[in-house]
């Protein structure tokens, strides 16, 4: 069975709606994965994106997939091989910095809901033409930030976004206030120094604060 683009977007939209922030996580030591996921979920951030940027990423996804209440996804999907590996590790959704026909086809064939990246109106329109209407706006700040995403939303109101890349506590509310934004991706809720120190209480507090974020105009 092949997952349709419409069904993929419906599922990723449901995941994005779980909390205002999706943690973008870089794991260097898989042993930290489960307690990190437990802290983030306890803080109110159940959707977790583990980037495939380290050797420990797939093992981390396997560990996080066992945490009750968590919905674990694989980020930085670039090739069909990434998709297969992520699915086998237990990822429930995928996130990509951009989108190629090969990557989209691989996710559809693997029945892995994908949040594909787009930074321009043309990229967003190409994905919409294929059936994807829940997208990642990346790199958000480098691509013009909230004003750019607001401008894209004017002629393309049927597309919703999760902006990622440069999103921080200082600007997250600007993105969340946009009518075409459901949530945002941020790495500040899982800082490397707190992970290395095993300071799960501090990470849970960061997650709790992020879970309360609301947009402002």
UniProtKB/TrEMBL annotation:
Keywords carried by this UniProt record: Carbohydrate metabolism, Lyase, Schiff base
Enzyme Commission numbers on file: 4.1.2.14
Pfam families: Aldolase (PF01081)
Pathway participation: Carbohydrate acid metabolism; 2-dehydro-3-deoxy-D-gluconate degradation; D-glyceraldehyde 3-phosphate and pyruvate from 2-dehydro-3-deoxy-D-gluconate: step 2/2
Catalytic reaction equation(s): 2-dehydro-3-deoxy-6-phospho-D-gluconate = D-glyceraldehyde 3-phosphate + pyruvate
Keyword Ribosomal protein in annotation: no
Organism domain of life: Bacteria
InterPro entries: Aldlse_KDPG_KHG (IPR000887), Aldolase_TIM (IPR013785), KDPG/KHG_AS_1 (IPR031337), KDPG/KHG_AS_2 (IPR031338)
GO molecular function: 2-dehydro-3-deoxy-phosphogluconate aldolase activity
Subunit organization: Homotrimer.
Family: Belongs to the KHG/KDPG aldolase family.
Alphabetical list of NCBIfam families matching this protein: eda (TIGR01182), PRK05718.1 (NF004325)
Name listed for the protein in its UniProt record: 2-dehydro-3-deoxy-phosphogluconate aldolase
Annotated source species: Jhaorihella thermophila
């Amino acid at each position: 069975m092949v997952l349709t683009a419409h069904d993929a977007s419906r599922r990723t939209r449901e995941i994005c709606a779980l909390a205002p922030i999706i943690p973008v996580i870089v794991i260097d030591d898989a042993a930290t994965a489960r307690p990190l996921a437990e802290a983030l979920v306890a803080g109110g951030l159940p959707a977790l994106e583990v980037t495939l940027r380290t050797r420990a990423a797939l093992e981390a996804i396997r560990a996080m997939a066992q945490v009750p209440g968590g919905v674990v996804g694989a980020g930085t999907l670039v090739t069909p091989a990434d998709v297969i590996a992520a699915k086998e590790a237990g990822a429930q959704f995928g996130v990509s910095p951009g989108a190629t026909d090969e990557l989209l086809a691989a996710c559809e064939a693997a029945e892995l809901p994908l949040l594909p990246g787009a930074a321009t109106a043309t990229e967003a329109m190409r994905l919409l033409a294929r059936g994807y209407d829940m997208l990642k706006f990346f790199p958000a700040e480098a691509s013009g930030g909230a004003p750019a995403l607001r401008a894209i939303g004017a002629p393309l109101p049927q597309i919703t976004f999760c902006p990622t890349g440069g999103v921080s506590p200082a600007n997250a509310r600007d993105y969340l206030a946009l009518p075409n934004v459901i949530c945002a991706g941020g790495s500040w809720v899982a800082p490397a120094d707190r992970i290395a120190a095993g300071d799960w209480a501090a990470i849970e507090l960061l997650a709790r604060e992020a879970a309360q974020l609301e947009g402002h105009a």
